[in-house]
Amino acid sequence: MSTTGTVPADVERPSGAAGEPPGLVGGELDAARAEPDAFGDPVPAFGDPVRTDSGQGAAPRPPTRARERQATPRSSLTSDRIVAAGLGIADAEGLEAVSMRRVAAALGVGTMTLYTHVQDKDALLALMRDALFAEHLVTDLGPDWRTGLTRIARRTRECLLSHPWVLALGLRPALGPNKLRHIEQVLAAASGITSDTAAQRTIIHAVDDLVIGCATQELAAKALGADVPQPMCGLRRRIDADPALRGLLDSGVFPHLAQMLADDAPFAAERFEQALTWLLDGIERTYRDGT
Question: Where does this protein bind DNA (predicted)?
Answer without folding.
Answer: 99-118
